[in-house]
Amino acid sequence: MIEGLLKHCTDMEIEKNFMDSHGQSEVAFAFCHLLGFNLMPRIKAIHSQKLYRPDPGMSEAYPNLQPVLTRPINWELIRQQYDQMIKYATALRLGTAETEAILKRFTRNNLKHPTYLALAELGKAIKTIFLCEYLNSEELRIEIHEGLNVVENWNSANSFIFYGKSGEISTNRIEDQELSVLSLHLLQNCMVYVNTLMIQQVLSEKKWYDMMTSEDFRALTPLIYNHVNPYGNFDLDMNVRIPIDTYSIAGQA
Length: 253
Prior knowledge:
Layout: H1 2-6, E1 16-20, H2 26-35, E2 38-42, E3 51-53, E4 69-72, H3 75-80, H4 82-94, H5 99-103, H6 114-136, H7 138-161, H8 174-203, H9 206-211, H10 214-218, H11 246-252
Parallel strand pairs: 1-2, 3-4
GO molecular function: transposase activity
Protein name: Tn3 transposase DDE domain-containing protein
Organism: Clostridium polyendosporum
């Protein structure tokens, strides 16, 4: 997820990143915050989430939230490891180290790593703020849902295009993997380009253009593929016999 945020190969200035529950973690919340992104997950098991208290000595505060409140945030740990956290975040942003190599240090296998503990603590604070906003704002939940629908539609189109071998890259050779992904990108671009031209042609007719509402225009997307036959077209004329010499075939048999 973070690799895609940092190396998206476009001119976009990314502010938000939408994802499903499995794509988020406390460490991910921390790194996204340090890198200047807003992590916007759709939380599936929202009923099991916990909110961390901002400071000690607030055990009786927020009486209506007592069932979902847990311990206070350890701000001192974050202060102690702040420089280290910034160092790793800067290395990610500048690309001075591989993203995977850095993030491997901050998995559940390194629970005693002090910087990991600090990142998790910062992530707990950021996630608590997000959960409060997520529960309070219907507009935010709608925004996340709509953003994920775009991603899911794109993934669905990719699966449709990349149908060979069930859409899996079944080789460990880097060259073959790159060739498969580059071919997929080429097909993606071709499909989007052709679909865009087709949509423009339809909307160039006043009759169809006038039928469109603002909601219709908002929902327009070139990521459509129901009109595409990935296996090609096969024209079969039942009135014409296949030109096969049955006698010669029988003789050879």
